[in-house]
Design a protein that fits this description.
30% strand, single chain, alpha+beta, 104 residues
């Protein structure tokens, strides 16, 4: 099996707060130091064409890749990840996670 992609979308409680957004982004960046994280993308909504299939209502997104589901499970329990959640969960109103496993 191929790698696992862990894609997380955050909606901030105060979406207009640049301070809150910056804190969340800085927190997400700490996750790249977890050894099981192969790659990381941190982003904000792009100014692409508005279409019915595009949801750009989120504030910040992270996309992490892992070599396996076992590595993603280690990440979930890793102290750096747990500290990230503890230090930043007060910032978000909603979180959605999409995990997918490569089939090609």
């Amino acid at each position: 099996m191929g790698p696992l992609v862990h894609h997380v979308f955050f909606w901030l409680k105060n979406p207009k707060s640049e301070t809150d957004k910056k804190q969340l982004i800085e927190g997400i960046k700490t996750l790249k130091s977890i050894p099981e994280v192969e790659d990381i993308h941190v982003g904000i909504p792009a100014s692409t064409e508005k279409r019915d299939v595009v949801d750009n209502s989120f504030s910040v997104t992270e996309m992490l890749t892992f070599l396996s589901e076992a590595d993603e499970a280690i990440y979930q329990a890793h102290p750096i990840h747990l500290k990230f959640v503890e230090n930043n969960q007060h910032l978000w109103d909603k979180v959605l996670v999409y995990d997918s496993k490569s089939i090609i």
